[in-house]
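Archive entry: two folds, one per protein. Generate the first.
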Amino acid sequence: MDGQKRVLGLSFGKKLSNCELLVKEALLKCQEQGMEIQFIRVDDLNIHPCTGCTGCVVQLASCRGSGRCIHSAKDDFPVLEEAVFAADAVIVACPAFVLGPTGHFKTVVDRFGPSHDITFAIPAIEVGQKEGRDPSTYPDVRILKKRVAALISVGGAQTENWLSQNLPGMYGFVEPMGMDVVDKYEYFAAMDWDSCLGRPEVMERMGVLGQNIVDALNAGTEEERTRYRSERLGVCPVCHEKQVTITGKGNIVECPICGIEGTLDVVDGEIVVTFSEEQQKRSRLKEAGKWEHSNEIRNGAMNQKKVPNLAELKKKYIGVGEN
């Protein structure tokens, strides 16, 4: 249907496991409200780990390529990429493995990473279009589409802090293309039932999550579209997570997800963390923060100091400890 919004659901869990069921319950609400839906069980896809070759970054920083990964011609990453490009909203669920997201989730994040960062893509697209080049020679313009997202964390442990790095780590998926997280939910103590289907209140919450996605997509203003709708409130007003890093600079702390500084004070026995409007605007979840980082990489890559006789110096380490 022309003009119909598409919601993509991604599960990094097992078939018909908690992650999949939670995502699909939210998708059903979206479909009920007139949205087109798509679901992918990501662990069914063969996605090669990033090898750190920097080929994608070099292409984009020089505005002379699409940023396409060399592995995309021989694995299933393009299937996932196309689904994300076609989507207006993405709902992602991932189980917590050893405090944080699964290894396959991180593999996917690494493959999206700089190659889909909007601040790398914008100049490359502008130069490609200005020169009248074939669209296949610069990034897909759909990278720049405004999308909303919802994150779902799942863990069996009855103690919530055993999931402490999961939701923070899941922001790595939404960060490159600047997806606005409008809802998130943490389902812990999942081991109490053999399925989340035994927890009607949790399934009802997924209906609310789906409705929140619908409301964001139907919003009439940018402010309403990006409005955060979850009851999960942390210390950071941008990512709404609970964590801060002690910087060692007086009472200055940092949000490890957003990379922004705030001040920590104790008021009437309560910890209060304050982030200025200026700092909030430079969160790495915002475009300004992304420009800081991409310019950092451009400047570093273009002005690297060369080590004299590097090949000769490396000889000392060839074969050390290898059998």
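Generate the second and append.
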Amino acid sequence: MTDAPVVTGIGTMVGDGAGVEGHWRSVLDGRSWIQPIQRYDASRYSARLAGQITGFDVAEHLPSRLIPQTDRVTQLALVAGDQALADAEAADRGYDSFDMGVVTSNASAGWEFTHREFKKLWTQGPEKVSVYESFAWFYAANTGQISIRNGMRAAGGVLVADQAGGLDAIGQARRNLRRGAKLMVAGGLDSAFDPWGWLSHLSSGEVSTAEDASRAYLPFDAAAGGYVPGEGGAMLVLEHADSGHPPARRYGVVAGYAATFDPPPGSGRPSNLARAMRLALDDAGVTPDQVDVVFADGAGVPERDRSEAASIADVFGPRKVPVTVPKAGVGRLLAGGGPLDVVTALLSMRDGVIPPTPHSRTIPDEYAIDMVVEPRQSRVDVALVTARGRGGFNSAVVIRR
């Protein structure tokens, strides 16, 4: 499609917070950042492993006045946004503030900030509660803070759709570019790892209780027994190819996007993930045989893995398209997972290698997928990224060279 936006900048916050190239090295090495929770004693909980960002000192990245105003997830989003905009060299290319906008997604908002302030309310009284609680908890805080920090006044927004929301944010940014914006920052991040936030993860009943980090999150593996929550995500800069502001680099094109919603549980009707994948491919003008790799949602829950594998087989037929879930090394990031997969897919195109799924090795024959478990040298021209959220959300994005 001629109006498909180009990705001109990328930023990530996962693992050790070392940025895009650090993330890419970890992915190719099959490194896992899943480890016991470090911020408090988690021994009393049924699950104790998480994909945490370690070694991140927010004071090294953001001004001191901004830190007390923001939850950890907003701080991560601001840093990832700064990385993406610097990568795109946006500040030096003459955009008007009304040409630039922001769309983000997160599934848990600023929980850590809110829980801290609620504790003050209950134990010390309302006069001790931070005035910033009025907005730091809000789902739109990431969009608002990024737009304020960078003077971006074009159409913005925030989407909440659990794990699928990050791809939806990219889809919405694409629409905003079609409606007149010239540059959009889009993506998603999540972090809800304070004790209350951790309980919210455990409430799903699908979190892995494994003690061995190398066996805890095994997408599509016969031994899969749940997922491991992670924190972080990615931000991207999207622009028109002919915006009049020539980009410093072009990673790829967001060629297609679609979202669907599953039928009610117990209805007996199958997931609509396959339909989302087909709609995204149609939107991109791509046929299934042109797809070089699928970056799958990879829930690590047998029932969900079986459903996703069936959807992939439904779309691709007897052809076993390569399937990978590199985010298994950092955990399921809720709204951050899809955008991180898009960034990883773009790097896969750049370097001609399909990254592996760490730890998953024994793939049931019934899944009928070609699971990539070691780095695979291969030209990648088209990648399909999928994401599924609790409650029936399905999203798919097609990336082209």
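Annotation attached to the second fold: The chain has a mean pLDDT of 94. The CA atoms of residues 38 and 289 lie 45 Å apart.
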